Amino acid sequence: MTAAVVEARGIGRVLPGPVPVTLVEGIDLSIGEGEFVAITGPSGSGKSSLLYLLGLLDRPTSGTVILEGRDTAEADAAELAALRLSKLGFVFQFHFLLPEFTVLGNVMIPMRKLGGSPEAELRTRAQALLEDLGLGDQAAKLPSQLSGGQRQRVAIARALANRPRVILADEPTGNLDTKSAQTVFDIFARLARETGTTVITVTHDEGLAAQTSRRVNLVDGRLVTPGVR
Ligand SMILES: Nc1ncnc2c1ncn2[C@@H]1O[C@H](COP(=O)(O)OP(=O)(O)OP(=O)(O)O)[C@@H](O)[C@H]1O
């Protein structure tokens, strides 16, 4: 078996307060290279919370997340930010593209942040990513000139900018029509299959979840095996 890319060891997240709120608890997971995983479960079951923990956007209050064999429990905020920038790519329900930047400019933002390559090389790589996602002729446009489905594909290109090991997506099709939603899942499946990128996506769409290679089902913040209560 190949080594895990992302591993959760007994992770839980409790929001402190007079009445503490448990978002997730006791999650053990090991996700390998090129897996395409759907996190499913009823509304409020903790899907987004789990995704944020796996994506190092939030810290567990118990347990730990291991990324490519590295225990992130001791990492400080700057180290977590560096890991997110270089190893992870995020796609959300809303595209969060910067409206004043062109499509190409948006894809180049994480590349510039990471640095280390000449501008011309970044430009070429961003253009190639857009072409790969069927957006080659949209590079000079502003996000406002694109359709919702195209904007989400730009957001995927931006998530792929620094060649992440893992793409984490939170209801990436929640705002899209059926056809655009299918395109997003086709892209994810191809990325996983052809490039070995691990894709972890939250979805409440059963038809889309069925297209992934693995389901992680949550009920009340805990993992359950589908069909077993
Ligand atoms: N900041 C917060 N304060 C209080 N409760 C919260 C907070 N964040 C999340 N919760 C609660 O924790 C639970 C898990 O939330 P989470 O968003 O992870 O669930 P989800 O499965 O992604 O839900 P949905 O499908 O509706 O997006 C929910 O009951 C939610 O209301």
From TrEMBL:
GO molecular function terms listed in the Swiss-Prot or TrEMBL record: ATP binding; ATP hydrolysis activity; transmembrane transporter activity
Signal peptide bounds: none
Superkingdom of origin: Bacteria
One biological process term in Gene Ontology: lipoprotein localization to outer membrane
Keyword ATP-binding part of the UniProt annotation: yes
Domain ABC transporter, first and last residues per copy: 6-228
Alphabetical UniProt keywords: ATP-binding, Cell inner membrane, Cell membrane, Membrane, Nucleotide-binding, Transport
PROSITE patterns in UniProt: ABC_TRANSPORTER_1, ABC_TRANSPORTER_2
GO CC terms, sorted: membrane protein complex; plasma membrane
Family matches, as SUPFAM superfamilies: P-loop containing nucleoside triphosphate hydrolases (SSF52540)
Protein family membership: Belongs to the ABC transporter superfamily. Macrolide exporter (TC 3.A.1.122) family.
Official protein name in the record: ATP-binding protein
